[in-house]
Amino acid sequence: MSQNQSKNKTFLYAGRVEKLQNDNVILIGTASSVSFNFIGNECSILLQSVDSYEHHNYVALVLDGKYLGKVRIEKGGAQSFPIKTTSNKKEHKLEIYKNTEAHTGGVLFAGTTAKLTTISSKKKKKIEFIGDSITCLHASDSVDCDKGEYMDHHNGYYAYGPTLSRAIDVDYLTSSVSGIGMYRNWNDENKDEAIMPDVYQNLYLTKDNSKPKYDFAFQPNIISIALGTNDFSGGDGKKERLPFNAEKYVSNYINFIKMLYQHNPKAQIVITNSPMVGGEKAAVFEDCLKKLKTLSRMIKRTNQF
């Protein structure tokens, strides 16, 4: 389905999601969401972790604009989660956000017992956030890094993209994968693992050709790209790690920008550095971004995409 925020009579969907039958939807990307309005003091929702790894997942719940916290969805079949209101409002709004990233598997919204009313959305400016674990907000939550499992450390609802977007009242789309880079990943020389240019056009941000393609319906006004932290990474010190290749990084990056312009010709692209890259690497990083800034402006001005 469209990754733009879409609507029918009873549900709104936003982010990287796959719409199924009977208003069911798989929340795929970080902070992808489904929202609905209902009347009454309580209802329940059905959620299920759906992926080949059979592990738990998380969503964040927001009721009448108030953040309720994270809900853990255990592996296995669909589970029912009760929702109880605390306000005296006649109509309530529930928002369900995927708290984990695309690579932890999807979260299926399989329905609700709520007495639904109609819901609508207003036209807003749009920003897409493309990036790695920083954009996913991995390793952010109050779980000791040496405890729990990988997905326990995410809180995509409070990632910088969604947080900024709520603050300035814009719609957003997050396309991010922890550990990923523009020409190599944090511990791989692009021999075994996919890089962002390999997976971006897949709805699920993987190389799985059985999954739907991303349809570029969102059409953001601004595309913010934060990729480079993992290209500059030294890896784990065990696998072979070659010196950073600035030429390859810039080449892959500019081709990625061309692809984005092809599908989003009116977008403005913002390229960012990283707070995790310092010293001499930071200077090289900055030089690469200056080259990319010049090249991307030329591409945009001459429509050479």
General description of the model:
Helices cover 19% and strands 29% of the residues. By secondary structure, it is of the alpha+beta class.
Layout of strands and helices, then pairs:
Blueprint lengths: L5 E2 L4 E3 L2 E3 L5 E3 L5 E7 L2 E9 L6 E7 L2 E8 L5 E6 L6 E8 L7 E7 L2 E3 L8 E6 L1 H4 L23 H9 L2 E6 L19 H4 L22 E5 L19 H18 L4 E4 L7 H24 L3
Parallel strand pairs: 13-14, 13-15, 15-16
Antiparallel strand pairs: 1-2, 2-5, 3-4, 4-11, 5-10, 5-12, 6-9, 6-11, 7-8, 7-10
Helix content: 10-25%
Number of helical segments with 4 or more residues: 5
Number of strands: 16
SSE order, one letter for each helix or strand: EEEEEEEEEEEEEHHEHEHEH
List key phrases describing it:
305 residues, disordered N terminus, alpha+beta
Compact description:
The chain has 305 residues and is α+β, with helices and mostly antiparallel strands. The chain contains five helices and 16 strands. 19% of the residues lie in helices and 29% in strands.
